[in-house]
Amino acid sequence: MEKLIEKANTLIEAIPYIRKFCGKTFVIKYGGSAMTEGEAKENFALDIILLKLLGINPVIVHGGGPQIGIFLKKVGKDTKFIQGYRVTDEETMDVVEMVLGGMINKGIVALINKHGGKAIGLTGKDGAFIKAKKMVIRHKDHNNKNSELVDLGRVGEIKEVDPSIIITLDQSFIPVIAPIGVDEHGESLNINADLVAGAIAASLKAEKLVLLTDVEGIIDEKKKLLSTLDRKQVKKLIKGGVIKEGMLPKVRCCLEALDQGVSKVHMIDGRVKHALLLEIFTDKGIGTEIRKE
Question: Where found in the cell (predicted)?
Answer without folding.
Answer: Cytoplasm
